[in-house]
Structures are given as structure tokens and as C-alpha cells.
Amino acid sequence: MREKVLPRIERPLVEQEIAYKDGQIFTTAAQTPALSGRRLKVLFVPEWYPTEHHKVWGTFCREHAHAAALYENVAVLAFTSRPQRWPTMQWEQIEDNGVPTFRVTYGHSPIPKTTLPFFYFHLRRALGRVLHEWGDPDVIHTQDTHAYHVMKALWPRRIPVVMSQHWTAFMERTLSRKLIRQYRRAFQRAARVLPDNKFAASEYQHYGLQAAITWLPNTIDTQIFRPPLRPVRQPWLLHASTLLPQKRFPDVVHAFARVRRQRSEAVLHVVGGSPSRAGMEALAARELPSGSFRFHGYLEKPDLAELMRQASGFVLPSVAENLPCVLIEAMACGCPVLSTRVGGITDLVREGGGLLVDVGNTEQIAEGMCKLLDGTHGFDMAQVSHEIRQQYSRAAVGRILHEEHLRAAHRACSLKG
Fold it and tell me: I need a labelling partner for 237 at 20 to 30 A (CA). Which of 7, 208, 219, 366 fits?
């Protein structure tokens, strides 16, 4: 493989030092390396990424790729399987708002006990083709357990790998021994590990995992998620999710049933869905009066943002979350939120920025819903929106990604030297 010349660092690089307190990640102030000469080339190989049929699947990964593209030359390899049992690889290349995106799907092997070898065979083929057509990247950015497989498929290429970590299985303590081994190997080989949960350090320590960690928040498009020019709120409460058990949507229904006994004008709007949507609609029909709820299904981001700008509050009573984009989006729209004291939500929804309740406590949820509808929560949502849009913008998060990618590339260059 040909030797690459990496960009020169204009001032000495000082690694971020990681400290832990009460399981939270803190990073000391560190010199930010400056890029000279050219932009880094970064190939994103996410585990989850939106597709034509699953537009909300891994949207946070797409947002990270587009945030990084503000400072770097970025391409995306979205590598997924198809249900057909025929091990052919299908290839499509598109331009996604200026980001070259290679969509690759492969069929499962029809031969018993050969699924994994065929998976690696196609992953190596896909990586090789992208590197041939797009060029060798300075850094590969991958995600969660996919990082383990990408690292194996890359061998013997020595391209530094940065991995982000989003999966809630850490906080749910549901990792199998096999997955723990895969994460351990991936953490050991990764140049940087970037969790979106500020409290991930305690979860890693629980499994005996160690890595060079920097907090990487999720990001939003602030041109779409912005406050209304004239904040006039409708008597609506909004919930948006996959409606999977983790989101605890039945708690929303049961709490809203209590609210409707006192506020007959209130309406519950529900965005999103999954195979369980039909069951959730049936639950709402049984528990709530006719006309008091509306299921929208999947909405494009601008349409969701418009609902957020009109709703009196957004409700997400999940049992496990790292840093849900949808809460960031609602707060950026000036919509007050109600959520649960889990994961990174406790850092995002701080005092004065939203309501927090205990998981499964429908009485607390109902009381919070009433405060949102009455406007008696006391939050300065203009200030909340301003702060959220500053901290979680693509520009702000893109700078973090750029710094971490540059550290990884510089470290690899130093090791070669």
C-alpha cells in the first residue's frame, strides 16, 4: 500500500486527558490541532444509516457525517444485508448533499454455517472498492460493534479507526460475553472512542473496558430545528419515536388519559412507528376519547420541526436513552420537554430546561403534561433554544469530530515515524 502524507500539525498536539467523576466524562482543556495544507479524508462506515425504506434508521449517524463534512472531505459506506438468501453484492453510489454515499447490500449465504465468512468477504470487497474509487482515507469512522468487524476486514491496511458508541445495551447491562469480547478488542484497537452518553465511562468500567474517550454529542440541523418567530402554542402534546418497548409509549397513553379528564381540548400527536404501531394505535383507541389523538406515521424533518414549534410540550418517557436527537430537536424549536432520569438525558435536560420524571411513573408524567399544557413550567424556552442550538449545531459537533479525527491521524503518523 502506498505511503500517504498526512497534513502537518502547526502547533504541538496535547492529548485530551480524561477524568471520571460519578461516572461522567470530563475532558480537560486541550490544544486543538490545526490543519494545514488540505482537509482530512474521512470514511464513515456506520452500523446504522438511513435507507429508502427506513428513513429514520441511524439518522444521528448521518448527521455526524454531514457535520464532519463542514471541515473534512467525507464519504459514507452504508453496508447492510438483504433478506434474500443469495450472496450477491448490490452497489449504489449517490451524492447526499455533497457527501459521496456508497450504499451496499449483500444477500445472506444459502450454505449453512457460512454466513459470517460471506459477510466478511463482502465487507472487504465493499471497503476495497470504496478505497479504490474514492481514495485512501486518513481516518475511518465507524460505530459500536460494527467497529470490530470493520477492523478485521481492513487488515492488513493500517488506517486509523475512530469509533462512536450509541447503543443503549451498555446502560441496560444486556451485553453478551461475545459482544463484550468484541467491544474490548475494538476499544483496544480504536484510536478514539466517542460515546454520545456523557455518563458512558461508568458503563464501560462495569464491563472492564478501557479506551481513549471523548464525549461526542449528537447533532441537529439548526436551519430546520429553530424556534418560531411568534411563539403561539397549541394545546397539543407531542411524542415522536419508533414506538418500540424502550420508548414506553403506553405510559404516554395512560398519563394522557388522566390529563384528558381535566383538559378536554388537549390533543396527543404521535410521530413515527414500527411493526408495533398498529398495537399502539389500538391501545390509544381503547384508552383515549375519539379525536383526542392523531398518529402521523413517519414525517420528514421539516414537518416534525413544525409540529414541535406548535406543540405545548414534547414527551419521551424512555426506559433507556443515551442522548436522543429528538429531545435536542424539540428544545431547539423552543418546545419544552418532559422525559425520564436515564442516561444522558439528565445532562441534556438540566434544571430550568425541562421536566424529568421517574421511569414508569404515570402520575408524575400526567402532572408534567399538565404543566406543559398550562405553560406553568416556568422555563425560558427562548434561552433554552439558543443554548441548545449553539451546543448541538453541526458546526459545533463537526469541530469535535474534526479534532478527534485529526488526533487519530496524527497519532498514526507518529507511530509510523
Answer: 219
Query: Could you tell me if residue 230 is inside a domain?
Result: no
Judge whether 310 lies within some domain: yes
Within this chain, do residues 123 and 177 fall inside the same structural domain, yes or no? yes
> Rounded to a whole number, what is the distance in angstroms from the first to the last CA of the chain?
16
* Per-residue model confidence (pLDDT) at position 412: 65
Amino acid 50: pLDDT: 86
Q: Are residues 397 and 377 in the same domain?
A: no
Question: Mind spelling out the 3-state secondary structure of the chain?
Answer: CCCCCCCEECCCCCCCCEEEECCEEEECCCCCCCEECCCCEEEEECCCCCCCCCCCCCHHHHHHHHHHCCCCEEEEEEEEEECCCCCCEEEEEEEECCEEEEEEEEECCCCCCCHHHHHHHHHHHHHHHHHHHHCCCCEEEEECCHHHHHHHHHCCCCCCEEEEECCCHHHHCCCCHHHHHHHHHHHHHCCEEEECCCCHHHHHHHCCCCCCECCCCCCECCCCCCCCCCCCCCCEEEEECCCCHHHCHHHHHHHHHHHHHHCCCCEEEEECCCCCHHHHHHHHHHHCCCCCEEEEECCCHHHHHHHHHHCCEEEECCCCCCCCHHHHHHHHCCCCEEEECCCCHHHHCCCCCCEEECCCCHHHHHHHHHHHHHCCCCCCHHHHHHHHHHHCEHHHHHHHHHHHHHHHHHHHHHHHC
User: Could you tell me if 175 and 285 lie in one domain?
Assistant: no
Q: pTM of this prediction?
A: 0.86
243 vs 282: CA distance, rounded Å:
13
Query: Which residues have CB under 8 Å from 178's CB, separation 6+?
Result: none
d(CA 36, CA 241): 42
**For residues 69 and 78, is the Cβ–Cβ distance under 8 A?**
no
- Grid cell 406548535 in the structure block, residue: 310
Cell (9 digits) for 100: 459521496
Domain match, 292 and 163 both = no
pLDDT value of residue 1? 37
| Domain residue limits at 386 | 236-391
Q: Does 228 fall in a domain?
A: no
Instruction: Compute the residue count for the chain.
Output: 417
Which residues of the chain are under the pLDDT cut of 50? 1-37
Predicted local distance difference test score (pLDDT) of residue 292: 96
| pLDDT for res 23 | 40
Residue 113: what pLDDT?
A: 79
What phi and psi values does residue 391 have, to the nearest 5 degrees? -75, -35
